Structures are given as C-alpha cells and as structure tokens.
Amino acid sequence: QVQLVESGGGLVQAGGSLRLSCAASGRSFSTYTMGWFRQAPGKEREFVGAISASGGITYYVDSVKGRFTINRDNAKNTVYLQMATLKPEDTAVYSCAAKRQTGVSNLYGYDYWGQGTQVTVSS
User: Fold this and answer.
1) What is the mean pLDDT of the chain?
2) Among positive and negative, which fits the CA dihedral 123, 46, 50, 65?
3) pLDDT value, residue 25
C-alpha cells in the first residue's frame, strides 16, 4: 500500500506558474502509474493527466495540454505537476493518485489517493 501527500498549492496570479509535488510512501513507487486530478467548486472531479511508471509516457487532457507538465523522480518517490500560464479556471483542489495498471489516458483504476492541495488563480 502507498500513502500520497500533495504539497505546493497556493495563490498565484493569472499567467503565473506553480509546481505541485506528490510524495509517496512505500517501496513500489516506481511500478505505479501516477495521475493528477482536480476538482473545482461546483464541478465534478476532472482528470488532468498521468505519467507512466518509468516516466517515459505522459498524457494530458486538452484543457491543460501545452501548459501543464507531469514528471517524476523515482529516486525521490515524488511526482510533480508543473503548471504554467495559469488561468482562473485552473482554480481547484489538485490531487495525485496511483494505480498499478498501465494506461496513462485511462482515468479509471486509481487505487490510492492523496488528500489534495488547493490552487487558486486570481484574475
């Protein structure tokens, strides 16, 4: 089993950048596909993107593609979400999640979840 803890959220102005971190416990981090999700006020949880276990494959939904980058450092048991050119509509609680199965474009199958970190983008 694995525990996930997000950090790095905060308040940023539109057009700015922010990097979120997700620190994982456990010995098998390098075998998990890692995903990022977000939930804005009044909306359902949205899949943002994911990265394969080795870090070689990434996927992003259209709304963030070209602005967000997911990478990971398996030696540090950490996955990152680098967010650039932030927009007010990016405001949400961002959570990381882990799954044993492969498939970065599949938003289902995540077994472990962090508690989330708040990102607020002001206009």
Assistant:
1) 97
2) negative
3) 94
3-state secondary structure the chain: CCCEEEECCEEEECCCCEEEEEEECCCCHHHCEEEEEEECCCCCCEEEEEECCCCCCEEECCCCCCCEEEEEEHHHCEEEEEECCCCHHHCEEEEEEEECCCCCCCCCCCCEECCCEEEEEEC
115, two tokens = 């508690």
Q: Each residue of 25-73: pLDDT tens digit?
A: 988 999 999 999 999 999 999 999 999 999 999 999 999 999 999 999 9
The pLDDT of residue 101? 95
Structure tokens at 6: 């997000």
Cα gap 100→97, rounded to integer Å: 11
Tokens of 37: 């999700």
Q: Letter for the amino acid at 73?
A: D
Calculate mean pLDDT across residues 97-119.
97
| Buried b or exposed e, range 83-104, using 16+ CB within 10 angstroms | beebeeebbbbbbbbbbeeeeb
